[in-house]
Amino acid sequence: MDLDGLNKTKVSIRLNIFNNELSELATFLNQFTEKEKEVIELVIRPIFNTDKFQKTNSNLLEIDKFIAKARSIGFYTLETHKKPGSFYYCEGDGGLNTFHLFPDLTVWKCGSDREFELDNIGYINEKGQITLDFTKVVNYASNNPFKDIECRECKYLPICFGGCPVDYHKTNKRSCYVKNRSVLQILT
Length: 188
Description:
The chain is α/β, with parallel strands linked by helices.
């Protein structure tokens, strides 16, 4: 990884853990140098097969072991799985300077729906520089729930923060995922 000019940049790497072993995580993380570890923060998230969820087809119950292993190797980790309410809906909604970079070097605001072309906000050019479509970036930022009267008056706004931005841009309406759930369901 070329670190020239990255002294003010943080690189977040999201690792989706799905029936993985700690040794696989270690093998992946041990390829980074100590200098690279200084600019990398890890987001380690358990994922599961949504067609047939069972706790046995996920690392949900062992996620703390994966986080501990990454820290023992020298990485800073974000524990987003323990923060049910935050100042954004998801990692993709984490502000104007938060992007997802895919192996084909395209830059997206959301990493979940690559068929929604408005979220494809740019690419990394042949010189390794990011090229953004600022019209799309500004459009994505228009998801501000504080501009929505119903959201401003909703007691759940601090938990859902306006719901999924992609869903909002697709349907032009809010999809509140917390209104019909108990506080216990929301916080666990």
